[in-house]
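Hi support team,

I'm opening this ticket because the web form for multi-chain structure prediction keeps timing out on my end. I have pasted the exact lines I submitted so you can reproduce it. The total is 240 residues across two entries, so I didn't expect it to be a heavy job. Is there a limit I'm missing, or should I split the entries? Thanks in advance, R.K.
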Amino acid sequence: MPRRTTRNSADRVRSSCAIARTLDVVGDKWSLLVIRDLLHGKSTYGEILQSPEGIPTNILADRLKRLEEAGIIASEAYQERPVRYAYTLTPKGRDLGEVLGAIVRWGKKHIPGTRTLTRS
Amino acid sequence: MPRRTTRNSADRVRSSCAIARTLDVVGDKWSLLVIRDLLHGKSTYGEILQSPEGIPTNILADRLKRLEEAGIIASEAYQERPVRYAYTLTPKGRDLGEVLGAIVRWGKKHIPGTRTLTRS
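Hello R.K., no limit was hit. The queue was backed up. Here is the completed structure from your submission:
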């Protein structure tokens, strides 16, 4: 069965709803967990890869690329041969801390046994 | 290439991080857009289907089922033959309004041309 195509009106309205447009950028679990890690002070591919959720390497590479294209993170080479990048949140990215804060509060209230993870 | 398996430690830690566990439940764009619609007063499958983002019917049916299993929404039949259900947010689901509020504020600040959509 072919994939259902989006209605023609979608692009027009998607571009004006702040919720839908934000979720187009960060509306997936892995993007928000990468942002959580950067807020917690992690900065390298290897450090994020060590997070307990076990993000797959291909997804991590994709999300770092997409978040940088969206202006949410910035990268800077800290080593050459092989080149390695450190990632930091831009001011736009740091503002997502408010969203993650709301998510933490909801989780701690409604999902038994959860807590705020601090940097490990 | 086989899908990378999750490390053994994942389940243990996933169950304690409030962000990761919350995102397991509502960490996708469509779930949060369905919750947005219910917060805006929509209640039926048909009403949600009319939202401008054009949610595919199979995804809407899946998300309603998962959100009800998670205790975020409740359903009640309002018509028989054929049976039709009205969906409402539980108190747990209404508390996600804080998360959506944070998302709206971020979007309006950082994505040009977006706004808070009111019920259409």
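A quick check on our side: The mean pLDDT of chain B is 88. Let us know if the file doesn't open in your viewer.
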